[in-house]
Amino acid sequence: MFTKLLIANRGEIAVRIIRAAHQMGIHTVAVYSDADKDSMPVLLADEAVHIGASALAESYLSMDAIFEAASKTGAEAIHPGYGLLSENALFSKGCKERGLVFVGPSPEVLAICGQKAETRKKARLCGLPVVPGSDDVLDKSQLLEIAEQIGYPVLLKASAGGGGIGMGLAKNARALEKEWDRCQSRAERAFGCGAIYLEAALPSVRHIEIQVISDGYGNYIHAFERECSLQRRHQKVVEESPSPHLSPDLRRQLCDWSLSLCQSIGLVGLGTVEFLVDAQNHAYFIEVNPRLQVEHGITEAVCGVDLVALQLQMAAGEPLRLKQGDLVQKGSAIECRLYAEDPMTGFLPKPGYLEHFSYASEEGIRVDTALQAPQEIPPFYDPLLAKLIAWGKDREEARLRAIHALKALQFKGLKQNQEFLIQVLQADDFVSDQYNTQWLEAFAQSLRE
Amino acid sequence: MEVKAQITGTVWKIEAQVGETLEEEDEILIFESMKMEVPLCAPDSGILKELLVSEGESVEEGQVVAILEG
Predict the structure, then answer these.
(1) Residue where one domain finishes, among candidates A103, A123, A151
(2) Nearest to A237 by CA among A446, A11, A422
(3) Which one of A39, A188, A233, A410 is most buried, by most CB atoms within 10 A?
(4) Do B37 and A379 touch (CB under 8 A)?
(5) Residue of A165, A233, A351 with shortest CB distance to B33
(6) Rounded distance, CA A85 to CA A315, Å?
């Protein structure tokens, strides 16, 4: 095992990784921008290195600054967290060239997973059904013809994308050309690659993903599913595990498919295979995320594993001691993402000054956060303030614990979605499991009217 | 008519030019805040008389960023 780990990330996920590393006796190095100089990761890590100005491009996305910090501190490994450089094949390659352990897949695997059209091809070869769409990256002249073949409405997706960035919906040919320009320029800017592919926009679908764990010795296991249908702008807000929607047969099928695909790609470490499931229970592969997911905590709560610790062990070259039979889904967990945003104005981001934040320690409740109010919540980074994870012996106990814990949260001075999350968990449709990927935005709209 | 920023963030891209005739809902500019791009649209039709911000500039919620003449 390496002895010093640099965390190339910020906020709650940096805190989460530092905690796991310290519990394993690993020395930690935080990196920080101007805006994060007094942040919790800086306080908790054994060492901290300033890497630049507040803008992401000048700090957390600057590979040179991060490599320099690693060299200066003698770090032997880098954990990229999620987002930022976590799926960047060049970063993984740069680590390798410098003799640093990248806590994530090889540059080759990241290159495959990073080109979504390429992953769709791999998935089809493994026998997974994929959402009807185009495999090859298109140019504009092919666009209308392929959209006609798929049938409107179509989704435009950035081939190198993620997190809902560079995605657009077109209901007709006119909208398609406009969305193409918009998505392409945003994908170019966010990922440095403007390639776009098309997928049918399936109605009434659920978003379900499978957690895969693998070492470098051919051992692949899964840690079941996460139900992630409650989204706004294609970004998740509430997740739960197990999915109340999934039959045992479909669960088994999705897990088998996921293992087979990850094996064929050669993924090592953590990977998540994402699917859409329609009202007739037909499943379609969407993409593989070769990294730690934001919502990993609900899997940890239900399966009793520490995914970050496993990730570190596998990155250090240790074989997976956990067997498939060791993992069972026990009880139910719900994650609520607290965002600095206003659900009543179309979920507009709301950076600003947070005067106070506190939460009560309750049975079955875990809060992952880097908040230490009073503090400024800057506009440079994503709006995630905290993740509240509730575990219960069944879904209803988890739901009631989550509502109670959300009500006990104390926020002062910053617009956020605490109240909205309570309303979601209390909604009849949530209680009776009658929701899909379009439900959350429609629910917010109904509250506004 | 004063057009105000609906969020705190930075001006990512200016989409309309001074002197241009805009229809209601036409994009004037795009803000960036918390890794999200938020378009600012014309609240009414009219001529874009003034743009009070430039690309890369920081803005506060409620700040007047453009003048539209009906």
Answers:
(1) A103
(2) A422
(3) A39
(4) no
(5) A351
(6) 17
